[in-house]
Structure formats: C-alpha cells, structure tokens
Specification:
Layout: H1 13-17, H2 25-40, E1 50-55, H3 56-66, H4 69-72, E2 75-81, H5 98-101, H6 107-113, H7 118-126
Parallel strand pairs: 1-2
Helix pairs in contact: 3-7
Length: about 130
C-alpha cells in the first residue's frame, strides 16, 4: 500500500503544506491511520505489516518506532533517517530543510520539533515511567 500522507507533493502544494513545521505530526497520524485501516479491513496484521523510509521517510519510520506505530508494524526499515531534529540542520544538506521543518535554534520551533524528533521521543515518551513502549 502507498499511503500518500499529508506533507507529500502528490496532491499539490496545499497537500504538501498541510504537514509542514508545527503540523508535521499530521503526516505521522496519516501513516498510522493507513496502517490501522489495513489491519481493520483484514488485509494484514501488525505482525505482517512493515514500513520503510529514507531521509524524510526515515523520520517517518523513526516516529513510527516511537509512537503508536510501534504496535502497528512488525518490521521497520529506517534508511538514512533524520532522527535528531535538534541537530539536523547542521548535517550535510540539513540546513536546506529548515523551511520544511523549522529552525531548532529558535525556541518556538524547537518546542514542536522536539515532539517529532525520534531521538528525543525515546527519552521523553518511550522511557518515561508508565510508558508501555
């Protein structure tokens, strides 16, 4: 299945812009919704469902591993991912993606970037007391 989640360019600029910066979580929510629907329709089961992504798609997979998606996928392939959203802009072409994600050096941007930074989600969400991760 191809999810065509918000943030991609498949359906034009408005579709792409719907998941920029502080709205990036919409892309992850869309992906989880597709996975849940595939399971609900009996097409597959979490044990038999996998996700794969590289670069921006690697950020998606990293979020699946640290969100509800961890229960929705039996396998995940995370290729050349963006996992540390606090430092992504200092690596290779990362600075060119700041319009897409935001600037982690700006406190208002970092506040939402941290919410979908897989590296930080492991500490903030997955390892917190009471987590079922």
């Amino acid at each position: 299945a191809i999810a065509n989640i918000r943030g991609g360019g498949e359906f034009g600029p408005a579709w792409h812009q719907a998941a920029l910066q502080k709205h990036r979580n919409r892309a992850f929510e869309d992906f989880e919704a597709v996975a849940r629907d595939l399971v609900a329709q009996g097409i597959t089961s979490p044990r038999h469902l996998a996700c794969i992504g590289g670069s921006n798609g690697g950020l998606l997979v990293g979020n699946m591993l640290t969100r509800e998606g961890a229960k929705l996928f039996g396998a995940a392939v995370c290729q050349v991912p963006l996992l540390d959203m606090q430092r992504y802009h200092k690596l290779l072409a990362g600075a060119s993606w700041m319009a897409e994600y935001g600037d982690p050096d700006v406190p208002e941007d970092w506040a939402y970037l941290r919410s979908f930074s897989p590296y930080h989600r492991v500490y903030d969400e997955c390892l917190r007391p009471g987590s079922d991760w």
